[in-house]
Structure formats: structure tokens, C-alpha cells
Amino acid sequence: MSRRKFLEQSGLLAGGMLLTNPLLANVYQPKKKLGVGIIGLGDRGRGIKSVMDTLPECYDVVGVCDVLDFRLAGAKNINAKTYKVKDYRKILEDKKIDVVVIATPLSEHYQIAKDALSAGKHVYLEKTMTYSSEQALDLVKIAKGLPNQVLQVGHQYRSSPLYYKVKEMIEKGYLGKVTHIDCRWDRNWNWRRAVPDPSLERKVNWRMYKEYSGGLAAELLSHQIDFINWTFNTNPQEIFATGGVDYYKDGRETFDNLQAVLRYKDAEMIGTFGATCANKKDGYLFKIKGSKGAISLLVNEGVFYPEKETMEALQTVDGVTGATKITWNKDGGIPILEEPTKDGTWYALKDFYTNVVERKMPDSNVVTGAKVAFCVEMINQSSYTDTLKYWKPEFNI
Questions:
Q1: What sequence ranges are listed for the domain GFO/IDH/MocA-like oxidoreductase (predicted)?
Q2: Which of 62, 66, 102, 250 is least crowded, fewest Cβ atoms below 10 Å from its Cβ?
Q3: Architecture of 3-21+162-341+366-395 per CATH?
Q4: Pick the CATH number of 23-157 from 3.10.180.10, 2.30.30.280, 3.40.1410.10, 3.40.50.720
Q5: Are 48 and 103 in contact (CB under 8 A)?
Q6: pLDDT attached to residue 323
Q7: Residue 138, Cβ neighbours under 10 Å: how many?
Q8: Is residue 216 scored above 60 in pLDDT?
Q9: Peptide bond into 310 cis (omega under 30)
């Protein structure tokens, strides 16, 4: 491929790649303000609330809910007009509420989402969509029977201009044949929240306990797994995972060290996905490796690294047109975007608004969310039993 052709097709200009995400290409004009009920006021629920507050033309948070009194009492940035309740059914009964945000422990996702859909609400359901594959399959059936209601799952890379652009690059062949995905999400932190009363340990630190949580696979790695499913229109046919409570001997049940190998036989790829809570050197790492080049991603910025032959083609000067100069990093990479993107939740909530108002199927929908839930369950089952897990026929929905 000539350098000129690459520039024209990829949208590369000096300093970065032009965005082709429809979110940025169209002028955004809200049609109505949606009444919102937020169920779950932990870190994630409050974070979503703070983003919605930056979109006052789209959302009006009418009510919030949490089963823990101290969260209701200590919730920040809650307007005086916004009421607070412990029973989520009060949120579902409120006719002023159009959409419900579910940011509870994973074990509660299914029942609340089911009840919200039954109450006629649109749903923004945090990842991972459900705790089990059985729940995911049932929620798919329920949502498909309610075509006028929107259920969007919080796998926000499907709304990010950066990840949208990366998907486009892969589809156009700039990486060549992709055979390996390397993903990590590491930290050096015990993942614990302060507990005001010992009796609340399991409710506050639910991520530590198998009864409530899918652990590191659900809370962190599911984002990257979803992006690979989406970009390559695939799913892993085989999964082997291993892990343990290798560092924090504090009574937790979910692993603080997890490594998984996902084999995408149909796409002829292998993905390695891992997370540890005892070292933050790599932090967030997401590399997609192909025969013509690789992409290295952070959450909100990325770099394209051409292989030698591809780089030589890009460095060939077009003597007729004097094609635009590419800006290279010191390590030989090309920035994918000129500037880092916003928090992915902002793009996802903009998408959610449009999907609700226009009754559009989200990119991150009940079917795609179910397929990630299947992967997370397979990883956990494999790591807890030291066995190879296989994609089941009933997962082909």
C-alpha cells in the first residue's frame, strides 16, 4: 500500500487520525430530557450520576436508591429535589422516571433489570450484564419481547471514538492478519472499601465474595473481552484460566491474581487476559498484534506501530502530491488520535440518550452483553476448577 493511499483511507494527518465515529460527525441536538432513577450508589453509581450532571440537557436524576443507609446519607452531588430510597421498586413505580441505571453488585443485576423492563423502563445496566449464563439467556428472551424498550450494557468501548477508530482500522486491514491479543489490567491495591460496621463487610466489599461477584474477569477484563468480540465478530471457543488468592490473605474468595487464555478458533487468534492486585507496573495494557502492525491502547489514547515493511511504505514520499507528513513517536508509532478522549462513560451516556429517544438498538445491547457474561462465567469456572471450558451451542444467540 502506498503512503498516499494509507493517508487517504485511514484519515491520517500530521499529529493523528481523523475521527469517523458518527457520535462526532453529527450535530447533537437533544429532543427531550429523560427522568432517571439510579439504583446503586457505590463508586460506579455515583460516577454515572456525576457524568449525567454534565449532560443536563439530556438527563434529570429524579430518584436514587441504595440498600445501605450510609451511602444514601453520604451521597455527594445529589440535588435537593432528588429523593432517596432503599427499595428499588419505589424507583420503578415512579412515572416521572423514564430510564433506570443499575449499578448494584453483579448478583443483583438480573432481577432488577427484569423488574425494570417489566415496569416499562429503559435500562442502562452496568457490566457485566448478569452473574450467570442462565440469567443472561433469560434476560435476552425478555428484552427481545419488549422491542420498544432499550437495554444498554455498560461496555463503553463500543461508544468511544478511539475504540471505534481502532475497530475501523482493523476492518480495513491495516494490521494485516491479527493472531494475538495481549490484555492486562493490573494494580497494587487490595480493592477494598472502608466498612463503617463489620456487619456490612459482604455488602460493601461484595467484589471479594463469589456469592455476589464475578471477580477480576467481570469487573475489569470484561471490557477488553467485549471489544474483541465486537471488533472481530467472534467469541472464544475454548477458555483456560488459572488464578488464586496469592497475596491478600484477608478472607476474600474471588482471586487477586487471574490469568486466562481465550482461543478464537474461527478467527485463528489467541487472546491472553490477565489481572493482578499486587503489582501496577503494566497497569492497563491492551495490545492487538497483526502481520502488518500492532496497536497499543490505553483507556483513552492509542498508538499504531507498523511492521518494518509497512513503515517503509508509509515513509515513501509521493513526489507528485507531496503527501502530508506523518508525526511519529520516538518509539516508531503513530498516534491514533490527536488528543486523548473523554471518559468513556460520557460517550456511552450520550449514546444511551440517543438510543432511548430514537428507539435504536445499542451497539452494546442485551445480546452482546450476554456473550460477554458467557465468557466471564467460563473464565471463572475454568479458574475455580482447573479445567478447560468450551463455548456451548446455546450461547449462539
A1: 164-295
A2: 250
A3: 2-Layer Sandwich (3.30)
A4: 3.40.50.720
A5: yes
A6: 37
A7: 15
A8: yes
A9: no
Distance CA 130, CA 69 (A): 25
Query: What are the residue boundaries of the structural domains of the chain, listed by start?
Result: 3-21+162-341+366-395, 23-157
Please write the tens of the pLDDT for every residue from 12-59: 433 444 344 444 444 445 578 999 999 999 999 999 999 999 999 999
Q: Which three cell numbers stand for residue 351?
A: 449514546
Separation in Å, CA 51 to CA 91, 97, 312, 325: 20, 18, 44, 37
391 vs 382: CA distance, rounded Å: 12
pLDDT band at 75 (very low <50, low <70, confident <90, very high): confident
Q: Burial letters for 77-91: b for 16+ Cβ neighbours within 10 Å, e otherwise?
A: ebeeebebbeebeeb
Say if strands 178-185 and 99-102 run parallel, antiparallel, or are unpaired. unpaired
In three-state secondary structure terms, 122 is strand
| Strands of the sheet with 238-244, listed across from one edge | 334-335, 302-306, 293-297, 284-290, 178-185, 269-276, 257-264, 238-244, 389-390
The pLDDT tens digits of the residues spanning 240-260 come to: 999 999 999 999 999 999 999
Residue 294 CA to residue 301 CA, distance in Å, equals 14
**Rounded to whole angstroms, what are the CA distances from 376 to 39, 165, 174, 314, 353?**
23, 26, 30, 40, 28
Helix, strand or coil, per DSSP, at residue 269: strand
